[in-house]
Amino acid sequence: MIFQGKVKVGNTIISNPATKINENSEIKINDILIPKKDPLAIYVYYKPKGLIVTKSDEKSRPTIYEDLPKQMRNFISVGRLDKNTSGLLLLTNDGHLSRFLELPKNKFERKYVVKIRGKLSKFQVKRIREGVIINRFKYQPIKITILSKSSKFSNLELCLIEGKNREIRRIMEYFETPVIELKRISYGPYVLDELKPSEFHKSNLNYIDY
């Protein structure tokens, strides 16, 4: 396109592919200005229970993008939370950052508070901490803290690195202590803080080295 005279820097047609430009240069192709990349942004969003993390749903269920402002509908979610899980969901305009935050090898810890029916035995807690095999599927060790318990319910804090699909729910179902409420409260350095359901804020922690 340069050799065909279709490229301009500012209002000058260039003929040399080695032409130097900088971040403030205006580049045009066929007199159409190439938009500059938006600055990196990452938002902490309190996903309410009942919403699907997807752009559109074949069953017409409500999605997070119907809950967010129109200008955020091109943002990418960092991982997912299932329909009945609430809490912290990260949204970014950078696909590379999203993938970096999701990869288990980068060891971003996901922290959840969980209310279950019944209570776990010491042996079950030990198994969760060491890693559980369910139907030949290996779940990695999870940090687990018992926050409170009664004869009917227990409140737990769980910290995961991988966060496989429905991992906490599957493990608790396996131990016959089904999940009643599940909320993510942090993801790596990002925390839910005082946000309420459907609220979000732009994070100042944009400059993770990835």
Mind explaining what this structure looks like?
This protein is an alpha+beta fold. It has two domains: 1-36, RNA-binding S4 domain (Structural Genomics Hypothetical 15.5 Kd Protein In mrcA-pckA Intergenic Region, Chain A); 42-202, Pseudouridine synthase, CATH 3.30.2350. Helices cover 14% and strands 32% of the residues. It has helices at 64-67, 95-102, 122-130, 167-174, and strands spanning 7-9, 12-13, 27-29, 32-33, 42-47, 76-77, 86-92, 110-117, 132-134, 137-139, 143-149, 153-160, 179-187, 190-191, 200-202. The strands form three sheets. Strands 5, 6, 7, 8, 11, 12, 13, 14 and 15 form a nine-stranded mixed beta sheet that branches. It has a four-stranded antiparallel beta sheet with strand order 2-1-3-4, with no helix packed on it. Strands 9-10 form a two-stranded antiparallel sheet. The radius of gyration is 23 Å and the shape is elongated. The model has no long low-confidence stretch (mean pLDDT 92).
Strand-helix topology:
Blueprint: E1 7-9, E2 12-13, E3 27-29, E4 32-33, E5 42-47, H1 64-67, E6 76-77, E7 86-92, H2 95-102, E8 110-117, H3 122-130, E9 132-134, E10 137-139, E11 143-149, E12 153-160, H4 167-174, E13 179-187, E14 190-191, E15 200-202
Parallel strand pairs: 7-13
Antiparallel strand pairs: 1-2, 1-3, 3-4, 5-7, 5-15, 6-7, 8-12, 8-13, 9-10, 11-12, 13-14
Q: List SSEs in N-to-C order.
A: EEEEEHEEHEHEEEEHEEE
Distance between the termini: 33 Å
- The CATH H-level superfamily of the largest domain is Pseudouridine synthase
Q: Give the class-level CATH name of the largest domain.
A: Alpha Beta
Helix content: 10-25%
Query: Spans of 5+ residues with little confidence (pLDDT < 50)?
Result: none
Please identify, by name, the CATH architecture of the largest domain: 2-Layer Sandwich
Q: State the total count of DSSP E strands.
A: 15
Number of helices, counting only DSSP H or I runs of 4 residues or more: 4
CATH topology of the largest domain: Pseudouridine synthase
Write down the overall mean pLDDT: 92
Radius of gyration: 23 Å
- Please summarize the sheet with the most strands: 9 strands, mixed
